[in-house]
Sequence to fold (143 residues):
Amino acid sequence: MDHIEQQKMENEEQNIQKKKAQVRKEWNQQELIKQKQHERMHQEHIAHEHQEHMHIHSPEDKKAVLNRLSRAIGHMEAVKRMVENDVDCSEVLIQLAAVRSAINNTGKVVLKNHLNHCIVEAIEEEDHLAIHRLSDAIDKFVK
Fold:
């Protein structure tokens, strides 16, 4: 491939990237409008449906989160058995604190993954809606 052909291919790639960026920007603006309308519906108690947004995560990240959740579930089942077997309340409270800590740490892993992947991509694509949703999610997570 000579220099001229390579330059043409690079120009075409740049044009494609510019078009993609413009489409993403327009989509983000539309999504932001939808989000504001959705918030208004909540404020005015208007009946409506929620749509879920799918994220794709690496198998390693997903496995790490699922393993942490499985351990927390197993721990919670053990606490349930403690209550069923009339174990001392102070011991149950200590184990509940451990379960809560495990769940909070799992949330931190999810948050870090989200920041390192989804939000980095959202910033690159100027996806203000994703950043707004993250802010809302953090507010609920730290309550």
Q: What stands out?
A: The chain has a mean pLDDT of 84. The two ends are 59 Å apart (CA to CA).
